[in-house]
Structures are given as structure tokens and as C-alpha cells.
């Protein structure tokens, strides 16, 4: 997943969560724009963190796959 889509998706979720919170409190949805900004920044930061974690995990999986393929080739060469 691309960085922009990850951050934007989480930020959108933050805006939706803020709107639901205001609805539960029976306050107007358009009140408190600072809260919306805080939600966008907080959830966007979470999206950025998740993106970086996903990238690190993909690299670790790629390295592990290379090791496993090398071990398989070596084992097949010994058997032959």
C-alpha cells in the first residue's frame, strides 16, 4: 500500500471517528474544527507508522525467502 493512501485512509477514519463522537454527544458535527485537525494528525501519524512497519516486514520476508530458497537449492544439489 502506498504511503499517501495509508496516511489518507487513516486520517479519513480519524475524521469519521470524530464525527461519530460528536454525534454520540449530540453536538453539531461542524463544531470544534480543532478536534478534527487533531484527529487527522493523530490518525495520519498512525497510518505513517503502519506503513513503515509494513515496509520493514516485507523486507524481512523477502530476506527470509531468499535464505529458504538458497537452502533448498543447496539441499537439492547435495541430494543429486
Automatic annotation (TrEMBL):
Transmembrane residues, as ranges?
29-50
- Origin, by domain of life? Eukaryota
Q: What is this protein called?
A: Uncharacterized protein
Q: What taxonomic classification does the UniProt entry list for its organism?
A: Eukaryota, Fungi, Fungi incertae sedis, Mucoromycota, Mortierellomycotina
Q: Which keywords appear in this protein's UniProt record, sorted alphabetically?
A: Membrane, Transmembrane, Transmembrane helix
Keyword Membrane assigned: yes
What organism is the protein native to?
Mortierella hygrophila
Amino acid at each position: 500500500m502506498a504511503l499517501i493512501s495509508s496516511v489518507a485512509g487513516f486520517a479519513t477514519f480519524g475524521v469519521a471517528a470524530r464525527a461519530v463522537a460528536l454525534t454520540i454527544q449530540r453536538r453539531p458535527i461542524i463544531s470544534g474544527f480543532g478536534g478534527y485537525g487533531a484527529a487527522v494528525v493523530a490518525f495520519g501519524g498512525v497510518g505513517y507508522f503502519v506503513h513503515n512497519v509494513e515496509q520493514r516486514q516485507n523486507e524481512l520476508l523477502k530476506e527470509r525467502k531468499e535464505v529458504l530458497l538458497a537452502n533448498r537449492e543447496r539441499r537439492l544439489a547435495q541430494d543429486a
